[in-house]
What we know:
Two copies of one chain form a homodimer. By secondary structure, chain A is mostly helical. Helix content of chain A is 59%, strand content 0%. The two termini of chain A are 47 Å apart.
Amino acid sequence: MAVGPDEDTRARSGGDEVEAPVRTDAPWFARPEPKPLLRTERIVEAAHALVHAGGRDALSIRDLERVLGVGASAIYRRVGNKDQLLIAVTDLVLSQAELPPQTMPWNDALWQLSLALHHALKEHPHVHPILDSHVLATPATARLACCAIEILGRAGLKGDELGDAYNGWIGYVLGFSIIENLPAQPVDERDEMRRWIHAYVDRLDADAFPSVLASRASVLNTTFGLRWDAGIFGARGGSFRWGLTAVIDRIANRGPRAG
Amino acid sequence: MAVGPDEDTRARSGGDEVEAPVRTDAPWFARPEPKPLLRTERIVEAAHALVHAGGRDALSIRDLERVLGVGASAIYRRVGNKDQLLIAVTDLVLSQAELPPQTMPWNDALWQLSLALHHALKEHPHVHPILDSHVLATPATARLACCAIEILGRAGLKGDELGDAYNGWIGYVLGFSIIENLPAQPVDERDEMRRWIHAYVDRLDADAFPSVLASRASVLNTTFGLRWDAGIFGARGGSFRWGLTAVIDRIANRGPRAG
DNA sequence: ACCTGAACACCGTTCAAGT
DNA sequence: ACCTGAACACCGTTCAAGT
Lengths: 259, 259
């Protein structure tokens, strides 16, 4: 994925047989802008734009060809395959998360880092399917991991205990964020599902499920279900902080418990 | 997705032009077994088998045609589209998680339910991509959610507090489980990535990243990174329990904290 | 009513050929 | 060295036609 040192300005030649659409956003005498030669960066940015607009399945090499104005082989000369392109897009998104300064107390820093990560993933839900079907070893992920591990070190953890805490923390932050934001559903599907859920809850045996019925409004309006209506209502804003508090408390007051 | 009441035994007729391969696992005089007519259940099971064997992308309608010995239209008459088929497969997997008895104390029950869910997802990593790209409202997910909410109710939670705790819990359990198990990687890619990670850590500034280097072995062998080597080493077995302890402790000693 | 065979409109990736 | 155009081997889904 090295970026070639090619910087050129020759325009791509076009056949005369096809009539291009007339541009009205520039004077009639304007020549088409010379296309900058293909660089990996441009490919990744274009891919990001497509994924951002329409989700993972909206990215096709064929569309990239059209957007970039090049053939498929020109793309494959830089990126290997579509999966690696998706990983590059994810790296781009994660590189935008801001790290807390090293001088900050560990618990403030962990709060800030968690919220930054949560925010980045919330802004870019389209990369979630990539996060959980690819192993990511990129500059952006390594940078985030090292930052988090240093924070845990400042909290006094080390060795395997640090490993468990790190995994528990990243599992929660990434996992919750991924689970929280689902791609938008078609409206009619959404309504049908909502009716199904309401009917399900209304048909429950009041003796067997008193708590579900007692907290009916909260259950139907704000909880994930097992993802069952995240796409409809989303989670309560406070839920992410609820679990994060649990994790950070456990780091502060550590030692085996609960089991 | 209703199952048709069709039960019949007529064999599918085949043209005489194509010579079928000779079966040696049955006597020479054996006639081909009459194919049971297509039922939705059979489609879902066949789809499950394909997904289980080769992951999400290994399921194609074309393969299903071949496995089931029917045309595509026969399948589309029962399942609508491929996404719904994948949802049905996930429902099948989740329906196998065993629920704790209602008489069990809330914290034991929550441990047991969490581990059952974690186990089911660990056994069937192929459904993870489905879990985070589809809204699931199915009998199995509703059953699990209602069970968990009742447990939280027994712990004394209700209303929005119950909602937050439920979301935090399910976010952790599902999220961690999804993040933990990645599809296997090709060996050479794996080795290349491992070398990259080691080189990255070895090049770190010792003053800026003392904790990463002090816990080097643990960091390289057992932590998720940001998924960076989960596919290589997996998480420490204890990490799931570490975070679950955090969540359950928070439920037991509730009230706002940490922030 | 239920299925088949063939088609439609796409994919990701590769390969010979051009400059 | 870098690109084009065309091909290869697939997809999910639909539709007329059969029984």
